[in-house]
C-alpha cells in the first residue's frame, strides 16, 4: 500500500516503515497503539480506539486480532467495561509464575524487576509457568513484595505427566513437576482403565480457578513407576522435550541418499589423502570431528574437520525446524534423544572410518608458542582413517600399549604430533590465564533390568585434553572469522562474577586469609592464579567449589562480551553441529561469508535465548533422571553408614556427597543437633547458637542413610552416631 493513501493519523505512526515491509496493508503498530492510549490518559473503548486510529471497516477484525495478541503479552488489559487500559497505569505487573513445591510461588516480572511473593491461596488460581498480571498489595514478614493475581493471561500447561492417585473413589493425577502443586482431577470417562500408582499423561481441559481445581483427561498410560526406562519417559514429558520427529522431518531424511553423490564433492577440497582420525569415547556413536597435525617449520599445522551438517539440513526445511526446536541432543544414561534423525546423526553426517564424508574444515597455522598465526575455512571431502578411543590413544602415547594393526602403526607419528602440539597449546592456555577447575565426572554401570549396578569415576587423560584443545582452537578461529567479516552469529559468552557474588567470594576468602586479585574487575588469570596457589592445601576442593559458584552460566548471545572462563576475547561453538543447533548456525554463517553473502535466520537475540534455554532444559532433564536412578540404587542400602563431604549448605540443612558411591543427599537442619542453627550464606555454613557447632562447605561427615524416596527423588541422611 502506498503511504500517500493513508490518512494523516496513520502516517504519524513512528513505525510505519517497518510495518510496510512486513504487511501489504499495514495496521497501526503496537507501539503506536500504546502511544495513543497513553496520550488519552483514560480507558478507551474499542469503538473509540478505532476512531482515534482511523481504522476502516475491512480492518476491524485484523485490529481485534492484534489487540488480542497484545492482551496475551500483557501490553494491554481490558477493564470490567471492556475498555482498553495500560497495565502499568493500573499498577499491574506482568510476568511469569514460578511455583514452589511447598505451595507458594513468585511472579518473575517481564521487566527483570524484583520478584513478587505469591502466597499459596493466590497460587490456587494458576499453575507454574503461567503468565499473569499481578498487583502489589504490600510486603510480607520477610520484607518481600507481595502480590495478588489479577488475571492469568496465558496458560503454560496443556499436558502434564504424573502419578495416578485414587482416594475415596476420586481419581487424581499428582504432577511429577513439584512446582505444579495442584493435583489434577480426572474426568470419569478416562479413569476406568488406570490403576493407582501408574504414570500417565493428562490433558488439562479446565484450568484452575479461585474455587476450582484443574480438571484433565488421561491421554497416555506410560506404565508403572519402577518399569525400566520410566524415569526417562517421565523426564521427556515433564520438561517438554521433543522426542518424536515430525512426519515432515522423517520424510525429508528418508529422501536423502544413503551415500555421497558425485555432485556433493563439487567445489570442495579433496582431503582424502590426509590421515584425519576421530578420537572419542568408547560408547560414542555420532562422530562430528576429525583431527590431523603435523610439523610446519618451527610451528605446526592443525586441521580440524567438522561434519558438514549444513549441506543436508537447509534453512526453512522440516529438518531445520525440528533441529531448532530441540536446540541440542540430550544424553540420558543408556538413551540419546538426538537433534537430528539417525540417518544423519549416525549416518551421513557421522565421520565414520573408511567412508567419504563432507566437512567444513578449519586449517590452522600455529607457532612454537601456541599462538594461531593464520587460519582458513573451506568445504572439503575426506575419509577418516580410523575411529580411535581416548583410552586407546592415551595407552599408546603413554607407552603402556602398542598398536596392533598396520593402520594404527601408520598413525603413530601423527598422534605424536598431536600430543606435542597439545603440550604447546596447553602451556599457552596457562599463560593466557584460562580457568581450569578440576571436577570429578562419574559414569553409571547398569544391570540387565536397566538399573544402576555401580557408579564409578571417569578419569580424564591427556587424549581427552588433546581433542579439547583442538576444538577450542577451531572455535576461537570461527568466532574470529565471523567477527573480522562483521557477520552476526551466536557467540558463546561467559561473563565474570556479578558485583554481589564477587563481594561474597572475597568475604569468604578472608576467612582463610586469602585474596582474589583484580579489584572490582578480576580477570580469569586472577582466578587461575588463586587456584594455583591453593592447589596443595587440604581445603583446596572447598575453595575451588566456592570460586566456581561465584561465576555465571555461559550462554549464547549475538553480543560478544568474551568468554571469561577460557580467557578469550571472542568465542563461539563450531565443532558439534550434529548435536548443537548454534554450531549449525555458525557453519551457515561461515559459508555465507565465503560465498560473499549473508545469513539471516531471524532475530539472533531470540534464537540465542532459545538455544540457551534448551541447553538448560536438557541439563535439568538429565539431572532428574540421574537423581531418580541414584535414588533407586540407594533403596537397598538404607541403614548403612557412609563417609562424605558437605557439598552444599542451604537454609534447611546440608547436602553431603558420599565418597566412592558418588551420591548426594540431605541432612536436614533438624538432624544437625539439639540447637538453633543459623544459615550463613557468605561463609557457606550452619552455626549453632548455643553450642557454636559449625557445619561448613567441605567439612567431612559420617552419615547414615535413612530414606530414598522415588516419588520425590530425595535421599535423606542423619548424622551417624559417634
UniProtKB/TrEMBL annotation:
Coiled coil regions in record: 53-80
Domain S1 motif: 639-720
Catalytic activity: Exonucleolytic cleavage in the 3'- to 5'-direction to yield nucleoside 5'-phosphates
InterPro entries xref list: CSD, CSD2, NA-bd_OB-fold, RNase_B_OB_dom, RNase_II/R, RNase_II/R_CS, RNase_II/RNase_R, RNase_R
Pfam family, one: WHD_RNase_R
UniProt-listed GO biological process terms: mRNA catabolic process
Single annotated GO MF: exoribonuclease II activity
Alphabetical keyword list: Coiled coil, Cytoplasm, Exonuclease, Hydrolase, Nuclease, RNA-binding
HAMAP family linked: RNase_R
Protein name: Ribonuclease R
Phylogenetic lineage: Bacteria, Pseudomonadati, Pseudomonadota, Betaproteobacteria, Candidatus Accumulibacter
